[in-house]
Amino acid sequence: PESIPVITIDGPTASGKGTLAAAVAARLGWHQLDSGMLYRATALAAMRQGVDAGDEAALARVASSLQLRFDGERVLLEGADVATELRFEAVGAMASKIAALPAVRSALNALQLSFRKLPGLVADGRDMGTVIFPAAPLKVFLTASPAQRAERRHKQLISKGISASIADLWADLEARDARDKNRSVAPLKPAEDALLLDNSGLTIDQSVDRVLAWWAERNPFG
Ligand code: CDP
Ligand code: CDP
């Protein structure tokens, strides 16, 4: 698996990581890992089972026994589609709380590594370039202004029929970013060799072209 190429895309909430990763994976014909979904699914499963947000051992058990399957737009948790619930901000907030717990993170390691399959993988999250795939030949750190991120997340939720106020979302995003940056395990930060991309003024296509151009320059496999 070490020889299978990986492009990592890390960055704060609603910076556009998932959208960019999906588009780059589609253009290259590669697999995709949305690692945030694994934390969100663990959070949702724990909420459903009534597991306490402070019970690290129980949360790690939930993470290591996750019955999760991706099928196009659908995300199946124990066979039922939970794609909509996973996007709720309450689930994102719980995800960022449990993601600070080392036992939960290590319980999800093997599952994340298993997504690395031929012909390649585009993985997005917070620690794809720093912890999970530290030898990836291309690491991108994606940012956008807080105002744009709150507005994008708002539009995205509305389009899924989930109501939310921009002011509340902004506050939620800042709280989550602060927690993700300040935790002691796998904090959100660019890898030393990451390329920074601020997509505030860019269209999705322009960001995709930027990453594909970087990949063309760096592709160690020719
Ligand atoms: O994965 P992450 O939370 O970083 O963000 P996302 O879910 O990919 O993007 C959040 C929303 O911003 C989506 O609805 C994207 O379509 C939108 N977006 C945008 O409008 N312009 C961009 N350049 C990138 C993303
Ligand atoms: O879509 P958005 O960027 O809002 O969040 P996400 O990528 O779905 O991730 C939800 C939460 O999971 C984040 O706030 C992080 O705390 C956590 N996470 C993480 O710790 N490490 C990852 N590789 C991915 C997500």
TrEMBL record:
Keyword entries, A-Z: Amino-acid biosynthesis, Aromatic amino acid biosynthesis, ATP-binding, Cytoplasm, Kinase, Nucleotide-binding, Transferase
GO-annotated molecular function: 3-phosphoshikimate 1-carboxyvinyltransferase activity; kinase activity
Main location (coarse class): cytoplasm
Intracellular or extracellular location(s): Cytoplasm
Entry annotated with the keyword Ribonucleoprotein: no
Binding locations of ATP: G11, P12, T13, A14, S15, G16, K17, G18, T19
Domain Cytidylate kinase positions: 7-213
Family: Belongs to the EPSP synthase family. Belongs to the cytidylate kinase family. Type 1 subfamily.
Assembly and oligomerization: Monomer.
Task of the protein: Catalyzes the transfer of the enolpyruvyl moiety of phosphoenolpyruvate (PEP) to the 5-hydroxyl of shikimate-3-phosphate (S3P) to produce enolpyruvyl shikimate-3-phosphate and inorganic phosphate.
Name by which UniProt lists this protein: Multifunctional fusion protein
Organism this protein belongs to: Pseudaquabacterium terrae
Gene assigned in the entry: cmk
Stretch of the intact protein here: 446 to 667 of 667
